[in-house]
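agent> Task received from the user: take the single chain below, predict its 3D structure, and emit structure tokens. No templates, no multimer pairing.
agent> Plan: (1) validate residues, (2) run structure prediction, (3) serialize to tokens, (4) report one or two observations.
agent> Step 1 OK, no nonstandard residues flagged.
tool_call: predict_structure(input=
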Amino acid sequence: MVNFQNTLSFAQQLDKEDSLSRFRDAFYLLKKNDKHVIYLCGNSLGLQPKTVQAAIEQELKDWAELGVEGHFDGKNPWMYYHHFLTENAAAVVGAKPVEVVVMNNLTANLHLMMVSFYRPTKTRYKIMMEVSAFPSDQYAMETQARFHGLDPDDAIIELTPRAGEYTLRTEDIIAKINAHKDDLAIIIMGGVNYYTGQAFDMKAITEAAHAVGANVGFDCAHAAGNLHLQLHDWNVDFAVWCTYKYLNSGPGGTSGVFVHERHANNKDLPRFAGWWGHDEKERFQMKKGFKPMQGAAGWQLSNAQIFPMAIHKASLELFAQAGMENLRKKSERLTGYLYFILKDFSEHLTIITPTNPAERGCQLSIIVKQNGRKLFDYFVEHNVLPDWREPDVIRMSPVPMYNTFEEVYQIGQILKKYFEIN
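)
tool_result: status=success, residues=422
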């Protein structure tokens, strides 16, 4: 337990003691008018690793020099490209390599997983999700219900915080699961809620759901590269995530999929198939009859997205060097320091993210009691870049890969000046 101090010297000492500080130099840091920008938007779009350009240029070179033969003769043959990402991606989410594949985009992958894991019957058809889930997840569940001929208002159970509270209690989630033990088909939740920053107890939720016969999937867009995930050990049925947030893999980047090994090799599990999911030993024989590849790779549809995957490969190599356990330890301290700094301004703002570090990632969401948008604009004017989410939340995410304790201290100084004049 660190006894934090709101001093520049203390923050600088924490940075000196930081064994991961060298990774900051691996990224392009933002500047505005030749001044450093404190970037707190890693929960929305991570900064660019410096190794990305060379990674893309390698694939451009092979395309230019080899054309179609790059699929087999390139430095990183495109035919097998997803294999080059699997081991490091699995390490990020706590999975076995056979349980992970990188492909497509997040919501497309979510729909593909629902094909396999949402199999409603007349009596067991309910979908459970948090009330403030990311809109794309809400739209996906609404249209999944309609696709199966169901009324979303009836089919979807929304988990709502208690009156006067911003986040969900684990015991309330489990109680809701037990209350729907006879009609619950699947639970779909964010690993971390995008708005409040709450990290859910995925292990406890999965155990409760399985006990009543329901499947469980998590949208880990805000959890992958942020939390120390253990998807295999937690027995999660499936998960999906994007790579452009904490995984620093570029705007609109590729996506990851986890399918637990007890399902991954089940050829009888319904799925939508494509030729890239077909056994790669026979893929170019162009025969009828789908034979899925082993594991999660059997859910692939089309050719690998080489350029987004090249970016992701470069970023994943940094995660392999740093280690998720180490990053998580720094994140808890870094975000804890931000929480300590923000608490000095509790008369002006409310932190709606849980106090317990186990119930949050590196994001803290705040509601300013008067004119939050004005404070957000003041941050931007003073070279701090958090992000704004309607109707009234400022999200701030100090990322352990590239943010510093001194930056967190500086945020406190900017807040002090703001509230002195407002």
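agent> Step 4: summary for the user.
Residues 121 and 185 are 8 Å apart (CA to CA).
agent> Done.
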